[in-house]
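Chapter review: from sequence to fold.
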Amino acid sequence: MINNNKDDNLVSMKPSLPPFAHLPINRCNLPPVIVGSLSFQHHPTALRIDGIDELHKALFRGLDTRQTHKQRANYFMDYMIVHFRMENLQDAGLMSGDKNKRSKADYLRILRGWLFDTDSREAAVLKSWVESRFGLLARYHKGELNDYASENYQIYLQERSSGLYATNALEAQIDLLYSYCQYELALQYEQNQRLPLYRGVNKIDSYEILKRHDKNQAVVLMNNINSFSRNRERADEFGDYILEADIPWQKVLFYSDLLPGLFNGEDEALVIGGVYEVKIIF
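The token string follows.
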């Protein structure tokens, strides 16, 4: 695992999160420069999206009364159906006779789109959501996003806009998905615990490496949302190298068995980005 003797030196790096990787503001309880910092990886704390606790007290009261993970997952999905009127979209503002299929896009479709293709329109929606809620800028979507005037960036803007257009409060749905995921993880782990997660990669140099200690350990600026596996053997199937990182569970948006029976496969976790210390396994 990662050598924690270097924690003090790593946390003192200035700046930990480069200015070009974050917005000045966000919609959670900590500023972007902290959320995406290396110090957050080593000293995590709760992340709360603005307004969720106040607006959705009924959700968390209901979750508190359910004894098993499956019962809570079913309650969460039922709450989403009722709150967002998913089975009666006219109550949510859909006009009678409207054939716009985007109104039926929901958080489950966004997850499926991401799991199928991390450069899809649904993936652009998730990257945009992370920008809005946590203030961490997307670094890659079908190509690097270093230049706001580039064709790649214009494609990203178009796809995130079309992905959100005429949908049923899609970003608010993702807010609740993240908040429910955090509720479940808080039942399993202590605040300072981190999860060993793995990411298969083909080219180490394609990542934004901020500092290289040696060939096996580096500080990397990740995209603002990333897929990791909780299973090292599965991660090995997706690249010639493995990035191993101790991820604060507070930065996990979703994991594959959060909603039992719906998303099986690579034992995947969707991780909010920023700066991470990683171990490179050849």
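Two observations follow directly from the output. The two ends are 14 Å apart (CA to CA). Residues 1-94+174-282 form one domain.
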